[in-house]
Amino acid sequence: FMMFCKSLEESYDWLYKDLLEQDQKKQSMAPVQCEEDVLQDKFARMNLQDSPRAKEILTEKELNKLADKLGSEWEKLAIELDFKKSDIYKFKEDNKHNVHGQIFDMLCKWKEKSGKNATVGKMIHSMQEVSIGEDVFKFLL
User: Fold this and answer.
1) Closest Cα to residue 110, out of 93, 125, 122, 97?
2) What pTM does this model have?
3) What DSSP designation does 125 have?
């Protein structure tokens, strides 16, 4: 595209400038993720699966810290972890004025029902599935 625009510069300067300006506007509006970022993200996901940490069972201390870091997205995570809407309602009712308690109860219940499958890797995968950012779980890596 740039070669085409460049060829217009001498004879059709006004068109060259207009096309260049439109292209710059289009690029500034689109979220840019460079190839290096994409590769790094893929590598991080692959690296997690190969990591010995991925197979470790989460501790209550780690679940407590995770409960501190999760926000309103905890309900999406609960659904991803196979809780029903009625379960979420119960977590809320049991801790009416304590969001941390609601989240921590949900995480502990998940650990209890998952047993040896309550691993770091499983939790991180579930959080990625509901678009929870790495800043929330990077302490687990």
Assistant:
1) 122
2) 0.67
3) H
DSSP string, 46-112: HHHHHSGGGGSBPPHHHHHHHHHH--TTHHHHHHHTT--HHHHHHHHHHTTT-HHHHHHHHHHHHHH
Q: In this structure, which amino acid lies at residue 141?
A: L
Distance separating alpha carbons of residues 102 and 68, to the nearest angstrom: 11
Please report, in tens digits, the pLDDT of each residue of the chain (141 residues total): 667 767 777 777 777 777 778 777 776 665 555 555 554 555 455 456 566 788 999 999 999 999 999 989 999 999 999 999 999 999 999 999 999 999 999 999 999 999 999 999 999 999 999 999 999 998 998
Count Cα atoms within 13 angstroms, Cβ side, for 84: 3
| Nearby residues of 79 by Cβ (< 8 Å), 6 or more positions away | 85, 88, 130
Question: Do residues 27 and 93 make contact, with C-beta atoms less than 8 angstroms apart?
Answer: no
Structural tokens at position 81: 């972890």
Q: How far apart are CA 36 and CA 39, in angstroms?
A: 5
